[in-house]
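Interim report, section 4.2 (structural modelling).
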Amino acid sequence: QKEVEQDPGPLSVPEGAIVSLNCTYSNSAFQYFMWYRQYSRKGPELLMYTYSSGNKEDGRFTAQVDKSSKYISLFIRDSQPSDSATYLCAMRENTDKLIFGTGTRLQVFP
Amino acid sequence: DSGVTQTPKHLITATGQRVTLRCSPRSGDLSVYWYQQSLDQGLQFLIQYYNGEERAKGNILERFSAQQFPDLHSELNLSSLELGDSALYFCASSVDAGTGADTQYFGPGTRLTVL
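Predicted structure of the assembly:
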C-alpha cells in the first residue's frame, strides 16, 4: 500500500463547476500538507500549504486537512479552463522529504 | 517562473551512457532536492543537499549520484543508463532544511529519453 493515495482521474467538469480533489494517507506522522498544480510538460507549482488539521482558503481554492481521518482535500470554486492540469497532493513529517500522490488529471471544458 | 533553473530541457541518449543534469536553485535557497517523475511511479524523491552536504536520500539508485557545489548549484549524474531511466527529472529548492514552514519550489525539469 502506498503512503499516499490519490485518484488519478481524469476528472472532466464544465466551466464554473466546483471541483473536489482528494488524497488519503497512512502515515500519522505527516504534519505538513501541500497541493501542487502541474501543467503538461512543466514543473509542479505550489498552490496551497497547510500545517496540521484545518482549512485554508486562497481565492477560488480551499484546502482541508482532516488528520483524524488521514484525508486531505482541495476544492476549486468557479473552475476555469485554465485550471486544467494535474493536481498533486504532497505531504511530509517534520523533515524535508516530500511524499507525493500520483496526481489527478483535471479537465475543465468551456 | 519559480526561479529554479534546470539544464538541459531535453536529453536523448543511449543505454549504457552517462549524463549530467544541472540545477540552479532560487537565489538565497540553500537546499536542493532531486525528483524523478515517471508515468507509472509518479514523483519520487531521490536526494537532498543542504549547503553542500547530503541531507537525505530517497529511492536513488547506486548508478545515480549528485553533488552540490560551493555556489549552491547542483548536478545529478546518471550512469549506465537503462531504458527504464527515461523520465522527467525535477530539481526543487528551498530556503532552509528542517524548518516546518519550509516549502519547495520546482524547476521546469529535464526530460531524459534513453534509447
